User: Fold these one by one.
Assistant:
Number 1:
Amino acid sequence: MSSKTQSWLIWFLRGILILGFLVLFGRLADLQIIRGKYFKVLAEENRIRRVPIVAPRGKIYARGGEIIAENKMVMKSIVFNSNSGFEKHESEGNSDEGLITEWVRTYPQGPEFAYITGYLGEVSKEELGKVEAECLSKGPRELGSLMGRGGLEQVYDCILRGSDGEELIEVDALGRKVRTLGRKNPIPGSDLTTSIDFTLQKRIVELLDGKKGAIIVSDARGEILALTSSPTYDPNIFGNKKYSAEIAQVLSDRDLVLFNRAISGTYHPGSVFKPVVAIAALEEGKIDKSYIYDDQGFIALTSVYGNFTFNNWYFTQYGGREGKIGLERAIARSTDTFFYKLGELVGVERIDTWAHKFGLDELTGIDLPGEATGLVPNPIWKMQVKGERWFLGNTYHLAIGQGDLALTPIALNQVISAIANNGDYCSPHIAESESKCKSLGIKEESIELIKNGMLGACSAGGTGYTFFDFKERSGKDVSCKTGTAEVGDGSNDTHAWFTAFAPYADPEIVATVLVERGGEGSRVAGPIAREIFNYWYKVQPSVSPTPTAHDRQ
C-alpha cells in the first residue's frame, strides 16, 4: 500500500509540473508570438515621445493688403520628465534642451478689428478629438489646441487652420532625452483677404468710442467695408493664460463687450423702417406718387376700448403741423401721421410680407457668427406669445418702426442697400469672393420715389440736417433716413439711428449708425454719419448747421 501511495503522489506531482510548464510556454508564446508586435509597439511608445509643433494659422488681410491678424514666432524648449512626459517652455534660444519653433496668434490692430477677426480659444471637452468634415486632412482636435472663436477666425477656422507637425524624440527609462529621431514640419494655414477698408474701419471705431452702439458701412453690392460694435475688446488676451484676469473681466463686463451689436443686437428701428412701409403701400397699389395726406399733427381713434390719440413727432415736440404732403415729403420729414395712415391702408399682413421680402425676420447670411434674426410682429404672433388680439393701434406703431418690431443694424443696412441698388438685394459678406444678389421685384417708379424722399431728408428742410451742405462741399448727393426709436422699457430713452447712401445715381457707400439709448437720430447719429461720409469723400470737416425745430427728429 505504501508503494502504491508513493507512485500516485509522484505522478500527481509530475502532472502539476507538466501543467505548469505548459502554462508558462503558452504565456511565453502569447507574449512573444501572438501579441509580440503589440507589446513591441508599447515599448516603442514608451521610448519615443511625439512632440506636436503647432502650425501657423493663415494671415487675415484688409482689402488693401494690410495685416489684421498674423503670427509671432516663438522659440520653445522641450523639457522631458517621467511624470508629464514633456513640457514646452518659451526660450531665449540658449537652452541645453531641444528647441522648436512655434507660432502665437497676434492681432496688430487689437480692439479696432476685434469684431471682424474674432479670437482664439482652447478646445472644450465636447470639441476634443472631433474632426471637422470640411477639413478631414487636418485631423482631430488635440488637448490644449486653439480654435477660432467669434469673427472670421471662427467662420473660416478650417481654412485658416494649418496642419500641425511633430518631432519624434527617443528617451530613456527616466524620461530623459536620448536623441531626435525625426521631424515632420507643420503646414501653415491659408491666408484670407477681406473686403474691409483698413483706414475706414479705424475711423468708425474712433467715431463710436465711448458710446454703446454699432456702425456698418458697405457698398450697394453687399461688400462690408467696415463694421464695429462698441464697446469693444482686445482679442490678444485670449488663448494666453497670463491674461486670465483680463479675460475674466471681459467675460463679466456689464456692458457685454463680447456682444456684437451690429449683427446680434435687436432694437426698435423707429423711422428708419418707414421706407419698407412706403414700398409696401406703393407695390400693393394702396397709394401712388400723387397721393396726398393732410397732416393735422395727430390721428384720433374712438373705439369700444376708449379714445386714443397718435401724434406726429413734430406736433408732440413743437406743436407743428405739416399740412398737405405727398410721399417724398413725408419720408423727408419723417411724418408719423402719414405713415400711420399708410399702415392702415396696407394692413399688417402686407407690411409683414414686405418685411419678409427684405429679409428682416431672417438671417442676412453675413459671414460672421452669432447673427440674430429680427422680430416682425403680426396678429398670429401676438396671440400666440402675448395672448392678445391685434388692434389698429398696433398697426400704427408697426408702421413707424415701434411696438414689438425689433431689427438688427445689419438687417436695416441691407434694406437701405437694396433701395440704393434699385431693388436688388445682395447678401452681406466680408471674405466671400462673390456677391449673391436677387431682385425683390420692386417697380422702378416705387424705388425712385423712396430714393427721392431720402434725398429730401438730407437736403434743406429734411430731418438729416448734418448733410444739408454736403453736396455743395463734395458734389455728391446723399440720400438718408433718420430714426429716433423709443426703447419701450418705461424710460424716456431712445435709440438714435441714421442710415444713408451716396451718390444718388450710382451708390458707392451705404452706412448705418446706431447709438444705443443715444437720443435723437439726427442730433446724435447724424453727425457720426457725416464724419463717415466726410472721410470717404475727403471732405474737410465743417461746423455742422444748427438744427431748428423743423429739422430735428
Number 2:
Amino acid sequence: MTFWNSFMLIGLSAVSIPIIIHLLNRRRAKIVEWGAMRFLLAALASRNRRIRIEEIILLALRCLWVALLVLAMAQPLVTRQSAIPWPLVLPTVLAAAILGGIAAAVWANRRWRWTLLAVSTALLVLAGSASAAEYLAQKERWSSDGAARDVVLVIDGSSSMTLTVEGMSNFQRAVEEAKAVVAACKPADAVAVYLAGSVPQGVIPSPVSDHKEINAALDRLSAPGGTLQVLEALKAATSALAKGKNPGKKIVLITDGQNLGWDLRSESSWQSLAAALRQVVPPRMPVPQVVCRTLPMPKSFNNLAAAGITLSRRVVGTDRPVMIDFRITNTGTSPMDANGVELSVDGALPMRQDVPQIPSNASETAHFDYRFERVGRHVLTARLAARDDMPADNTSVFVVDVIEKLPVLIVDGAAAQEDLEGAGGYIALAMAPRGRIMRLVPDSAGRPGTPWRSGRPGLLLRPGKGTPPASLVPQGKPAGPKEDDDVQYLVEAKVVHLADVRAIRDFSEYAIVVLANVSRLPKEQARMLEQFVRDGGGLLVAPGDRSAEVAADGSVKSFYDEWKTDAGEWICPARIAERRVVNEYPAHLAVKTFSHPALEQAADSTKSDAGSTLIHTYWKLVADERDPKVRVGGLFEGGDPFLAERHLGRGYVVMTAMSLDDRSGNLVTRKCFVPMMHQLTYYLAAPALVDTNVRPGAEVTIPLGEAPDAPVRRLAPGETIEVVTPSLQRLGADLVGSGADLRISFTGTQQPGLYRAILPASLRGRPATQPADEGVPFAVLGDAAESRLTVLTDADVDNVKRHLGNLIHAKQPDELTAAIAGGIPGQPLWEYLAIALLIALLAEIGLTRWICLQRRSHQVETVSFGAETVDIQTFRARARELLAQRTAEGRTVSKK
C-alpha cells in the first residue's frame, strides 16, 4: 500500500492531542481522612475499575478517529501487484493509534504505560517502513524518465475481440484505451499503430507525433478476425521501434488475454524476440518495455461456432456426389440449440438440416450429399441460425475446385497382353472400374499417346480368358463390353509398357504416375519423374517380382535402393530388404495399424474386408522412420511395413510392399481394393491441385490456364487486378509468369473469409477463371479454436517474463496509463476510511453520552438536611448517599 499524499502522514502526530488533553485534565482530589471513609473503600475500588475501562474505550475511539482522518487525507492506494499486502500496513497504523490511547488511559501504571507505548511505536515504524519500501518499489516499476519516447500500439483484432462484455465489445474497449494511451503521451512522443490478427497490419507503420492523425486512424479501425499471433505482432512492433528516433521505447499490446496464438512453448522464438528488442536500443540503454494490457473476459457466455467444412475426398469431380460435413462446436458455458444449419452452393437456395441441442464443449456434424454439375470453382457457405454472443464465428466458407478429369499414367513392368495379366491392368481397373483403359505405344514420331488398344466402358477380355475379380465388377452392371456413354468418370487411367517409357518427355500432363512391377527406369525419365514429384505430382511404387533381383545368398539388388536425387536424398521411402514367400501360412494385413489417410476406409473393420486379405508374397521394406519426411502408414501382422511414404518437395512418394495384382495375394479380389486405390489416387493428386483454401498470411496463386505457346501477357494501361476482401476492401494483386505459367499472385490474406479476384476483360474467358462475372473466388480459413476463450494464466505471463524481463502485465486501465505517463496505479481507500471515520465519531459520541448517563454528571442534586425531628437513622442514610455521589463526581473531575 502506498499514499498519494505521503506528507499528510505527519498528521498522525495529532493522535497525541486527545492523550495530552486527558493527561492535563487529570487532577487528583485532596484526600481527607475521616472516620466513615473506611466503610466506603470497597465500593470505591469496584467503581474505579469500571471507570478505567470506560476511559480506555473512549480514548481508543478518540485516537482511532484522528488516525482515520489523517489516513483518509493521505489518500492511500492499494496496488494490485504489491509485494507488501495492504492488510499489513493499514491495520498496523490503526492498532498503533489505539494502543497509544490505551497507554494514556493506564498512565498511572508505569509498566503497562511503557509497554503499550513501545508496542505502538514499533507498529508505527513497521508500517512506515513497509509503506516506504512499497512506494520505492512501485516508483521504480512505474517511473518515467521524462525523455521523449517511441510507443508502438498493438491492438488485438482477433475474432474473440468482437465478444461483448458489459455492453461494449472488447475491440471497441481496446480502441478507447489506445486513445487513452495517446492522451497520456507527451507532445514529443511518437506513436505507431499496428492491428494484430493472423497477420499484423501496419495502420501507422512508423512512429509519428501527430496525435490527431493517430486518433483518426484509431477511429477507422475494425477487427479483421482470425487468431492473434503474438510473436509476429511483437516482431512487427519491434521493427517499428527501430524506425523511431526517440531514446525511450515502449510496446503496448492491448488484447483480451486469450492464450491461443501466444506460442508459449516456442522457447527459441521468444529468445529471438528478446534479442531483437535489445538490438533496437544502444548497448547501455534499458531494453524496450513491453506493456501487456489484458481486457476483461466474461465468466459465462453462449456461443456456437462454425468449426469448418470438410469434404469426404480431396479431389472432386462431376462424376458422383461428394459428402460435405459442416461441424458445429459449442464453445460456450451452457447447452445451446443451433436452430438448424444451412449450406448454400454459389449462393443458390440453401439446403437446410436440423441438429440436436449441443452441450457445452461438445460438437455436432451436419452431413450434406451434393453432386456438382459444373467444372470450375464453387463457393460453399455454411451458416448457423443460432443467436449467440459471438455472431462473427457463425459462418464458414470453403471453395471447391471441381475438375473434369484426373489423368493417371501407369507404367506396367510386365509385358501383359491382357488387362488382367499385369499389375497395371488391375490398378487401372481399380482406379476406373467402368472407365476407359488406354494402352499407349509410341507413334511414328516417337511420341506416346497413340492408343494401342482402347477399352470400351466395362472390362475388356478376350473370349475364353476368364472373368474379372468380383471387386472390380460394378454392382448391378454386367461384366463385359457394354456402351454406357452417358456416364462420366473422373479418373482417366492410361497404361504404358516399360519398354515404351523412354518416349515420354513430360509427366506434367498427369496428376499421378504409378510404377507397377517396374524393374528400372531410364536415367532421363527417372530425373523427370523426380522433378514431377517435387512440383506436386504423386508417385505410387508397387514393386513386384520384376522390381528387384535376389542373389543366391539372399541379398537383394534393386533400382529403388539406388534411386537418389543429385543431393543424395532418397526418392523412395523404404529399401527393399528381402523377398518373403508365405504360401503355407499367408500373411494378413494388420488393419489396426493403418494410420495413413489413404487407408482410413480400409481400417474401418465394420465396413472393410481388408482384414481377410491373404498375402502369399511380398517384399520386406526397411523404412528409416527417424527421417521426418518418412512415415510408415500400415503394417502386416508380422510387423513388416505394408505401406510407406516420403514427402519430396510438394509431392509424395508412396510405396507398397507388394505388387497390386493376383500373383501376390487376393487383395485385388477384396471389396476394399477399389476404395483403397481411389483414396490413394486422391491423396497423391491433391498437392498438384490449386489450393483455393489457405491459412491467413499465405500467398495465393491463381493460374489462368493459358496455352504453353501463349505470348507474355502484360496488363495494359488502366488495367488492374483487384481482390475484394471479406470486409469489402479492394486490394491490388500482381500478374506474374508468362505463357502456361501465367498466374495471379496475392499476399494480403490477413482476414478469414471469402475473397474474389476481379480480372480485367482481357483475362477472362479461360476455364481456370470461370465464373469471371463475380470474380475468381478463394477462401482464407479461420481457426476454430479462436472461439474457445481460454485465458492466459499468471504462470503463462511469468513464462513470458522469463524472456522479456521488462514486461508489465496491466490488468486495469489505470495501470496502462501509469505505464505511459508515470505515477503509481492502485485502488483508492479514502472513501472507505471516511466511512470508518464517521462510524468512529458516532461511536465516540454515543459512548460519551452513555457514560454521562451512567454517572449522572449532567444532573444537579439538592441536599436537604430536613427538620430537627428527623431521626438519626434517616440522617445517616442520607449522608452515605451524598458522600457516594460527591466521591464519584470528584473522581470524574480529576480524570478530565
